[in-house]
Specification:
Blueprint (H helix, E strand, L loop, with lengths): L1 E5 L3 H13 L3 E5 L2 H10 L4 E5 L7 H11 L6 E6 L3 H4 L9 E4 L4 H12 L2
Parallel strand pairs: 1-2, 1-3, 3-4, 4-5
Helix pairs in contact: 2-3
């Protein structure tokens, strides 16, 4: 799968990218919401891992725009946050297919990606 990682914690995003590469995925890191939208406009991604608290745009706004742009071929959207699922996205939780709380359990993420890829 081609995964877009969106997190303003550059070290965490880069480490997650390395782990995904070890699992034979491709991955690209960006560290802000607008950069995520630009990346998605220039490259096709199967999945986006979105931090909910970004410096320029809220993660839910990035998710909303990604959903609108990929309506024909829906992208798997996974929110990543230090907050629990009930605290993070609020009424916009339905924008996301899954929610992972930081620190991310990589085995859980791997199962999510495998399930999506097998569809």
């Amino acid at each position: 799968m081609n995964v877009l990682i969106v997190d303003d914690n550059e070290a965490a995003a880069d480490l997650l990218r390395e782990l995904l590469l070890l699992q034979d995925h491709t991955a690209r890191c960006v560290y802000a919401g607008r950069a995520a939208l630009e990346a998605a406009a220039s490259e096709s991604f199967d999945c986006a891992l979105l931090d909910l608290t970004l410096p320029d745009l809220p993660g839910v706004e990035v998710a909303r725009q990604l959903r609108a742009k990929t309506a024909d071929t829906p992208m798997l959207l996974v929110s990543i946050s230090g907050y629990s699922a009930s605290d993070g996205a609020g009424d916009d939780a339905d924008l996301f297919d899954h929610h992972l709380q930081k620190p991310i359990d990589f085995d859980t993420l791997d199962r999510i990606l495998a399930a999506h890829a097998s569809r």
